[in-house]
Amino acid sequence: MNTSTQAFDGQKVASIRNTETGIVFNMVLTMKPGKLSDTDGPIIAFHDSRYAGEHFGEFGQFVSSYYASTLRQIEHGRGLNLDGGVENWALCCRSIYLVKNILQNWGVL
After folding, report:
1. What's residue 92's pLDDT?
2. pLDDT of 34-64, one tens digit each?
3. Domain map (residue ranges) of the chain
4. CA angle at residue 27 from 21 to 29, to 5 degrees?
5. Which of 17, 26, 38, 103 has CB atoms 3.0–4.6 Å from 47's, for a disulfide?
6. Would you say the C-alpha torsion 56, 25, 89, 22 has a positive or negative sign?
7. H or E element: which one contains 83?
8. Are 60 and 49 in contact (CB under 8 A)?
């Protein structure tokens, strides 16, 4: 399982490869939830890196986003369907394990 973390203009970004599909998702930490209250916590956005570039930006096509607290609640051994309309937009249980580790390293879990 390949992962990497880096910062783009102060934004924390990690790349997670789903070993079941081979798709690399970029997860981006958003500390400011926008219109939601500050008590809702940080939001993690997932992007399909295969579509990075002119049309979708440097992180790829936006797929979905979740509160870090929601990701923390995913039970051990479970994956996450990022978009019910696209079968391959999912994270396997190994990917979720890595997501949680990265969020802990970022200090948001």
Report:
1. 95
2. 555 556 688 999 999 999 988 999 999 999 9
3. 3-105
4. 165
5. 26
6. positive
7. none
8. yes
> Which region, left, alpha or beta, applies to residue 16 given φ > 0 means left and ψ of -120 to 50 means alpha?
beta
Segments in the chain below pLDDT 50: 1
Is 54 within 8 Å of 8 (Cβ atoms)?
A: no
Residue tagged 């997501």 (tokens) = 99
- Taking the model in full, what pTM does it have? 0.85
pLDDT of residue 41: 80
Token pair listed for 99? 């997501």
How, if at all, do strands 11-17 and 24-30 pair?
antiparallel
